[in-house]
Write a sequence for this structure.
């Protein structure tokens, strides 16, 4: 990542530091209200109704994309027979939330479903995207574009992602797949808060998410500051907009929840077009490198799990499953091995890593406690809801040499094939070896066997 930042800094000096943002989000006349929790309609239509299954993919460049891909493969291979029909755990996922590098995998699966297992490795994981982007930036033809048009480093990346990875796909295309609800998350640079690419967020801007390019959202989610320019949206506020009932209720609930109160204060600013005519988005890992706080905020904004689901079409679940795929690394820091003053880039990198690591730990504790609380809120004497919090990360690898191998993998958009292989396999192994996942599998196997015993034999 240090090399990437250095090269992009040079390109910024060559092409100039300021460009006019390219705006592509279109206005709407009427912003139709959307549910805060809306996994039961439009998307995730084939998942079971006795479980809520959420998955999050963290940031971390190709490392995160490959690890999350391995987890998807493992979930594809885990199958059970219920009601005479074979079902894969992969098909039970209701929602995938992602940031930065993990957003490439989430978006690709959202657009193409099982096709991801046919060509994603060639299209992205084993493609030297970083080299291609750097080459395009240092192409003199593109210098001219960046000087005389609205092109910049991020626009060149978006063009590449759109042509070679997502093939013009939009959020309407993801919805048409009727797969998991896909939440791609970025950071609102002006607010310092998370921004999720949902129609609910776009309603605040009086804009249409459906025709918005997936490539542009993924670019925003992975736009590391300095290396990439922000992705910008125009605030079209002023359309016919009826504030959803959950917003009014959330204001009351937030009186006892400082995190929620802070988030709501920020979201109100989107309705003020005069003060915020444009929204500038950067890497989602800055505000949540796990991509899970959006889930916490959505359920807490509804006043807790019971309120979140009582007015929806979703039946109260028996299980709440959350898998957090965390590709964060903790590499040995070479600055401690010398009496030389650390270089500026080393200092910036160390500070950023420390902040992300500490915030990530707080996020995991927050979500784990919230999951227990949600399960209790939904449980009754006749209907117990069981939570499963499955955390996958490199720190859980027992072998020190293997753990060090993964922790020293770069955060970039280019990794050797051997490292991609190792990361995909790690996704399989980390999930299989998770004690919480094993507990879930045991439950599902027992339910499968129980149903088999109770099914009358056919003549």
């Amino acid at each position: 990542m240090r090399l990437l930042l250095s090269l992009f800094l040079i390109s910024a000096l060559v092409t100039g530091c300021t460009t006019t943002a390219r705006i592509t989000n279109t206005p709407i006349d009427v912003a139709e209200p959307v549910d805060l929790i809306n996994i039961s309609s439009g998307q995730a239509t084939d998942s079971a109704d006795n479980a809520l299954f959420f998955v999050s993919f963290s940031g971390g460049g190709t490392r995160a994309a490959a690890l999350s891909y391995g987890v998807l493969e493992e979930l594809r291979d885990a199958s059970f027979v219920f009601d005479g029909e074979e079902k894969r755990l992969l098909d039970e996922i209701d929602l995938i939330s992602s940031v930065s590098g993990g957003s490439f995998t989430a978006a690709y699966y959202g657009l193409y479903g099982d096709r991801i297992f046919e060509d994603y490795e060639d299209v992205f994981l084993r493609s030297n995207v970083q080299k291609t982007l750097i080459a395009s930036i240092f192409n003199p033809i593109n210098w001219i574009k960046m000087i005389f048009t609205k092109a910049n480093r991020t626009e060149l990346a978006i063009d590449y992602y759109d042509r070679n990875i997502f093939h013009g796909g939009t959020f309407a295309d993801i919805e048409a797949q009727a797969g998991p609800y896909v939440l791609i998350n970025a950071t609102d640079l002006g607010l310092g808060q998370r921004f999720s690419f949902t129609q609910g967020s776009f309603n605040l801007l009086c804009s249409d998410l459906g025709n918005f390019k997936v490539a542009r959202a993924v670019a925003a989610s992975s736009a590391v500051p300095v290396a990439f320019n922000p992705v910008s949206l125009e605030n079209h506020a002023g359309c016919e907009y009826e504030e959803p009932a959950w917003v009014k209720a959330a204001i009351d609930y937030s009186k006892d929840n400082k995190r929620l109160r802070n988030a709501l204060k920020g979201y109100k600013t989107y309705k003020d077009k005069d003060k915020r005519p444009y929204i500038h988005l950067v890497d989602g890992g800055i505000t949540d490198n796990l991509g899970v706080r959006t889930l916490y905020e959505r359920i807490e904004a509804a006043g807790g799990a019971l309120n979140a689901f009582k007015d929806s079409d979703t039946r109260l679940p028996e299980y709440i499953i959350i898998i957090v795929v965390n590709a964060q690394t903790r590499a040995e820091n070479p600055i401690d091995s010398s009496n030389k003053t650390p270089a500026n880039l080393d200092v910036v990198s160390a500070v950023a890593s420390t902040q992300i690591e500490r915030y990530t730990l707080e996020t995991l504790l927050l979500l784990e406690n919230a999951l227990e609380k949600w399960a209790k809120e939904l449980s009754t004497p006749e209907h117990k809801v069981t939570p499963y919090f499955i955390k996958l990360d490199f720190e859980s690898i027992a072998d020190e040499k293997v753990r060090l191998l993964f922790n020293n993998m770069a955060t970039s958009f280019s990794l050797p094939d051997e490292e991609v292989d190792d990361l995909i396999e790690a996704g399989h192994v980390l999930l299989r070896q998770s004690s919480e996942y094993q507990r879930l599998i045991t439950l599902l196997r027992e339910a499968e066997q129980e149903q088999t015993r109770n099914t009358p034999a056919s003549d």
In short: The chain is about 45% helix and 15% strand. The radius of gyration is 22 Å.
